[in-house]
Specification:
The chain has 9 helices and no strands. It is 75% helix and 0% strand. With 198 residues, the protein is an all-alpha fold. The protein has one domain. The radius of gyration is 17 Å and the shape is elongated. The termini are far apart.
């Protein structure tokens, strides 16, 4: 897992933004967990290592840019995306999980996808493949990414304000954040797997 402390000291906000962008824009969500990073950045902001407003603005912009990159990749490649063989990043079951979620909730998925790890990595791609009108995509995308950046970073900031000597518990908080953010997606994936096997 990437050390947020290293990010703060080595690159600050620019590096934080680059990692948030890469999560979806470069399909690296499985290696670069945005929720965990943003919660921890919020905690570090409370400790005075980062400006909380800067964290929110940079992460919101980076998330929008990353999602737009994925959208246009999907728009250009179209159905060919679904013909790719399983690899480290592009796995058919991940695509199917995101696709079913997207089919069920449509554009609303863009409002909540950042809170669902696997779904958020592929939702913008699927929106592009499905030729969702760009203006509609951009509207929902900006709202969703901005809400995600505000809520998750402020959650980290709040946690940092409530726990004395928070630096001593940062690892435990990161583990909890990973489990909490991955839980809904894991449950959904298990349900899909069980339906297939029936």
């Amino acid at each position: 897992m990437i050390s947020v402390e290293h990010i703060v000291h080595a690159g600050g906000l620019p590096l934080l933004g680059l990692i948030i962008y890469a999560e979806v824009g470069l399909f690296l969500g499985f290696f670069l967990p945005g929720d965990t990073l943003l919660i921890t950045a919020g905690i570090y902001a409370h400790e005075g290592h980062l400006p909380i407003l800067g964290v929110i603005v940079v992460c919101a912009i980076a998330a929008v840019l990353g999602d737009n990159t994925a959208y246009w990749i999907g728009r250009r490649l179209g159905p060919a995306v679904f013909k790719k063989p399983d690899g480290l990043i592009f796995r058919r079951d991940h695509i199917e999980t995101s696709e079913k979620f997207f089919e069920k909730y449509g554009a609303k998925t863009l409002l909540v996808s950042h809170f669902l790890p696997i779904v958020r990595t592929f939702t913008p791609l699927l929106a592009g493949v499905g030729s969702m009108p760009y203006r509609r995509f951009l509207t929902f995308n900006i709202i969703g990414d901005t809400l995600w950046a505000i809520l998750v970073s402020l959650l980290g900031y709040y946690v940092g304000s409530r726990i004395p000597n928070i630096d001593n518990y940062i690892l435990a908080i990161i583990v909890f954040a990973v489990v909490a953010s991955s839980g809904p997606t894991i449950v959904h994936a298990i349900r899909l797997h069980r339906r297939k096997n029936k």
